[in-house]
Amino acid sequence: MKSRFQTVVLTAIIVAGSIFSANAQDASAILKKMDDVMYSPKDMTGNNKIILIDKNGKEEIREATIQQKGNDKRMFRFTSPASQAGISVLSLPNDVMYLYLPAFGKERRIATSAKNQNFAGTDFSYDDMESVLFSVKYTPKFVKTEGNVYVLELTPVSEKSDYSKVMVQINKTDSYPELMEYYDKGNTKVKEARYTFKKIGNYWNAAEIEMTDLKKNHKTKMQMSDVKYDTGLTDDDFTVRKLKQ
Amino acid sequence: MNRFADGIVKFKWLIIIAVVGLTVFFSYQAKDLHINADIISSLPDDDPVARLYKEIGTQFGGNDMGMIVLETNDVFKAEVIQHIKQITDSIKYTSGVSTVTSLTNILDIKSSEWGIEIGKLVDEYDLPVEQSQLDSLKNYVFSKEMYRGAIVSEDGTATAIMFTLLPEGDKQAVAKEIKDKIEALDLPETTYFGGLPMMMNDINDLIVSDIVWLVPIVFLVIAIILLLSFKSFRGVLLPLLIAGLAVIWTMGLMAVTGYELTIISNIIPVVLLAVGSAYTIHVLNSINHNKLADRKQALVQALRYILIPVILAAVTTAIGFVSFVFGAYLTMIKDFGIFTAVGTLIALILSLFFVPALISGLSMYGKKTAIESEEKQTILTHKILLPLVKFLFKHPKYTLTGWGVLLMLCIGGLMLIKTSVNMADYFKKDNPTRIAEDVMQKKFGGSLPVFVVFEGDMQSPEVLQKMIETQRFMKEDPSIDVTQSVADLIEQMNDVMGEGKRIPDDKAKIEQLWFLLDGQDVMPQLVNDDLTKGVIQSKFASVDTKDIEAFTKKMNRFIEENQNEYCQIELTGMPSVYDKLNSSLLNSQRNSLLIAIALVILIVSAILRSVSKGVFAAIPVVATIIVLLGIMGITGIPLDIATVLVGSIALGIGIDYSIHIITGFNNHLLENGDAEKAIESVILLSGKAIIINVTSVLAGFLVLLFSQIVPLQNFGLLIGISMIGSGFSALSLLPAILILANRKRKIVANNH
Question: What residue stretch is flagged as signal peptide (chain A) (predicted)?
Answer without folding.
Answer: 1-24
